Structures are given as C-alpha cells and as structure tokens.
Amino acid sequence: MMKSLPITIDSVRKTYGSYVALDDVSLDIRAGEFLTLLGPSGSGKTTLLMALAGFVRPDSGRLSLDDRDITRLAPNKRDIGIVFQNYALFPHMSVLANVEYPLVLRKTPKAEARQRALDTLARVKLDGLAERNIAALSGGQRQRVALARAIVFEPRVMLMDEPLSALDKNLRETMQYEIRRLHDDLGITTIYVTHDQREALIMSDRVAVMNSGRIQQIDTPQRIYNHPSTRFVAEFMGEANIIAPGLVRRIDGADASSEALMIRAESFHLDAKLVGRDGVALEGTLRAKAFRGENWLLTLALDGGQEILVCIPAALATGCAELATGQRLTAYAPAAKVHAIPGARA
Amino acid sequence: MLEAYPDNRLARILLWSFCALVMAFLILPTLVVVPLSFSASNLLEFPPRAYSLRWYEAFFGSATWMAALRTSLILGTLTAMIAVPLGLLACISMNRLGGKAAVAIQGVLLTPSIVPGILLAIGLFFVLAAQRLVGTLFGVLVGHVVLAIPVACIVLLPALARFDWNQVQAARSLGANWARAIGGIIVPQLQISLLSATLMAFLTSLDESVISIFVASGQNSTLPKLMFLSLRDQIDPTIAAISTLWTVIVVAVVLIVTLRQKS
C-alpha cells in the first residue's frame, strides 16, 4: 500500500475579475480519505481541484500536503495523480506508452517501467490491450487507461474531475464501485469532483457540498442526506420539500415546530398507520401524478398554495393508479424524517 | 462544390471551364519562362527561334550566381529553423493567454505580413545600420525571421486552437516540465502543421527580395536580389533558366511535403 498524505486547504480565495470562484475555502482531508466535492456547475469545485493540481494559483490562502506548503509548487513537482473529465489521453501513443509516460519522466529503468505499466493495466482490467491505439478504445476502456496512468507512479494524492460523466448509466455505476475499490486497495487520499448526488453518496467517506465558491456542508453521506444544514444542501441532495411552519400538523395534536421543516419526497406515506403518533400530516389537493417505475411521484398543493412532492414506492402504492387529480389527499411523514432547517424560509 | 450540381450538365461544364480559366491565368505566366530558358538567343524572346542549354550553363558556371544560390538556401533553412520554434511558442502563449491581450499580441505579431515590404525594409535598414549589421548575413536573417514568424503563426494558431489542452495539463501532472510537455505532447501531434509552417517559412525567405535588396550586400546577396539587379542591368535568358529551376524546386518541395502528409 502506498503512503497517502493528508491535505489542508486554508482560506483559499480565487477571483476572476469580479467573479468569486473560491470564497475563502478551508477544508481538511484526512490521509487515505475518499472525499467528494459536490456542487452544481460554477460552484467552484473544479477550481478548487485545479488549485490542488497546480493549474490555478489562488489569490490568497494556503494549500498543504502533509504540512508541506504546495501553494506555489509547479504541477509537475506535486506527485498528484489526476483523472481528467475527458481523460486527456495522449492519442499519439499506445495504451502502454500512455501508462509508462509518468515512469519514463521519472527515469525508471525501461524493463521496470514496462512491468509496472503492465501490472497497473491488469489492475484496471485492461490486460491484453497494451499495444492498442487510444483511438481504438471504447469510452470505458479510455477511462481505465486514464486511471492506470494516474496511479502507476504511486502518487500520494489522486484528484478526479467528473471522470464518469461521459459514460452511459450502467457503465458509470460499474465504474463507481471499481474506483472506490481501487481507492480502498491503494489507500490513496482521493478528492473526487462530481455534480451527481447519487455518485457522491455511493462513493465517498465524506462529501463537501459546494455552492457559489463556498463549502456549504461537509459531512458523511448519511448526514448530508438526512441532516442537511442549509436549504441549498437539502434541495440539492434530492427531492426535498421545505415547508413553512404553519402548514404542518402533528398527528397527535402536539405543537408542531416553529421552524421551517425539510421532508424528503420519499419520506411520505399515504397510510397514517405506517407513521408513528408523533409524525406529521400535510393536507392538500392532488395536482399531478407520474409513474416512474419503482415509484409514483405525486404533486400535492397544500392549502397555503405551496406545492410539495410526494414519492410513494410502487410496492406500497396500490391505490395510486386510481387517484384522480383534484381530489383531497393527506400525506404523512414519521418524526424521524422531519428535519428542521434553522433560518430557512419556505 | 461540383456535387451540388450532379444532374445539370451545363452547370458542370460552365464550372469546369471557369476553373480551367482561373488555373490557366495563374499558371501560364509561370510557364512562359520555361521555353524562354531553353532559347539559344541572347535576348528574351517568345517563342524562341532556336533551343539550347547555354543559359543553364551560364548559371551553373557563374561563381556569383552559385554564391547567391547558396546564400538563399542557407538563409531559407536558418529562417525556418528560427521562425517556426519562435512562432510555436508565441502561438502557445497567445492560445493560453486568451481574451483581448491575445488578440492585441496577435495583431502586433502579424503586422510584418501586412505592412508593405518596402516600409519594413527601410525600417529594418536603419535599425540594422545602428547596430552595424547592414550587409551581414545575420542582418538579412533577422529580416526574414520577422517576415516568417507571422507566416508560421497563421499555420500554427488554428492547429493549436483545436488542440486539447488537458493533455498538456495531464502531462504536467504526470511529472513533465514545460519543455517536455511541449516536446513530447504538443509537437508530435502538431507534426503536419509544423511541417507546413516550416515549408512556408522556408519559401518566405527564399522568395523575399525587398529586404535582401536593402540589407544584403556583395557575397551575401540572395538569389532574388541578384535576379532583380541583373534584370535592371541586362536582360538575358539566364533569369529564365533560374526561374525555371526555381519553379521546379519549389513545386518538387511542395509536392513531396503534400504527399508525405497524405501518407
């Protein structure tokens, strides 16, 4: 196993004219951790990754790798493996030459470089393709070559910039598990950038949700999903309903929260018996319904006018097909799935 | 273009005739010198009344002409060797810089190809005179490099615009310094454009006469300069022989390069 290193990002700021790409971002990444930077486009996640890679120079702040300041270190001296969104393979070289490239630069003896490149190709399941041209590879195979090239020189940190966004859905899911497995085998500190919430939840030890150049919340996938600290995180992580205090009624009649509440669409039930006495109920009119295969998505207009999304698993939705738009409906949610968001207005 | 009129015979015939006419206007004046060069007469006359190889003998037998030929070939080679790497680096910086700054630099860099040659030559003459470089091979070389850089850039800029810069970043992250990233990743992939740029820079120098007339002197005279001077002093068919040889050489070089690109 390679020696992996912790990363410290300390008040890093980057502006382009009046546009603030990174707004005093601070973040500690543990040695060997798999951390995902998650956010919409323009949130600063790629800028932060490129600053770590050495291609973006921060206006202020400090980047350190195991207490060593790398803020101004040239990219070629950082020993960081990077997988680019478009893979950035060298089309004028064979698969083997691509993977050998970092070793050749490090003056590794020829036979050893070749052996290590072949071993790494086998590790990413590309045995037998060493002599191929890059142009002759499929998207998934290119992805694997990019991975092999980024780990063959045993970097201490790996950065991945939306590496799976060009692949189709099935391949993407396979690669998610494989990349995570590779990380676990190598134990290498990994920073992964994506705008795909599911991907972030599936792959990461911790997720840092970014928006407008700031980190909104950094937590484990479970906490990010179930206990979002801001409205942005709540809505970005899934079909979240943020409901004004007055519209929610406790089933047992007790006083409901005076704060805005976040209830995910899939937390709702249409059957009060499935929810405890301390759960909440929301009444409204059915506006729209859609069958999505594994579940039904209902749009409910509350009496205050606010619309909420209710997602009922197909197995529990025996009556959903008969529901007619315009009819009255009550949705119930268990207390454990009702999360107060301080300061958020509905 | 012709595929747009697959069925209309008249349109096709008209189009082909028009193309043939344009080609004739472009090529025939160049070809007129060929029969002239084989004339036995002392004067440039068309069509020649008798044929001989005497003007080719005159050319190859003259130490002055041979020296000028050598100077021109050396200058062309050096110009290409200097202008193309400089042009490549300039294009890389413009490509990376982007925005208004890049447009401004591109404008400045391309001026030598827009400004009338005579103005450039006069300016260069004074600059070189101040450095006591008038009449030296180096002086002419400077002039030719200045002219060849924009030519190289015009070929290289669009090629770089299509280049995937992530590859350079990938190379850098894998441990390559700038020189290795340019030499190992950019240059091999821009081979064809670099070859074209080299050829264009070489031909720019080979063809250039105004700067050479102002700056070159004596044994550093280039072939075009000597041709102009000899045209002024006496009109004899040696010029036609040189022009013919010149055309054959240039066509051969362009053909070789084009065919190599195809294969």
Explain this structure.
Chain A: One of its GO terms (molecular function) is transmembrane transporter activity. Chain A: Belongs to the ABC transporter superfamily. Chain A: Residues 7-237 form the ABC transporter domain. Chain A: This is Putative spermidine/putrescine transport system ATP-binding protein. The complex is a heterodimer of chains A (346) and B (263). Chain A has helices spanning 45-53, 95-105, 110-123, 139-151, 169-186, 197-203, 221-226, 231-236, and strands spanning 7-16, 19-29, 34-38, 60-65, 68-69, 80-83, 157-161, 189-194, 206-211, 214-219, 240-243, 249-250, 261-264, 280-291, 295-302, 307-313, 328-333, 339-340. Chain A is α+β, with helices and mostly antiparallel strands. Chain A folds into 2 domains: 7-236, Rossmann fold (3-Layer(aba) Sandwich), CATH 3.40.50.300; 240-340, RNA polymerase II/Efflux pump adaptor protein, barrel-sandwich hybrid domain (OB fold (Dihydrolipoamide Acetyltransferase, E2P)), CATH 2.40.50. The radius of gyration of chain A is 24 Å and the shape is elongated. Chain B starts with 8 loop residues before the first helix and ends with a helix. By secondary structure, chain B is mostly helical. In chain B, helix 3 packs antiparallel against helix 4, helix 4 (99-114) packs across helix 6 (137-161) and helix 7 packs across helix 8. Chain B has helices at residues 9-37, 54-61, 63-97, 99-114, 117-130, 137-161, 166-173, 178-189, 191-207, 210-215, 223-233, 238-262. The chains are: A alpha+beta (346), B mainly alpha (263). The interface between A and B is medium-sized, with 26 and 17 residues.
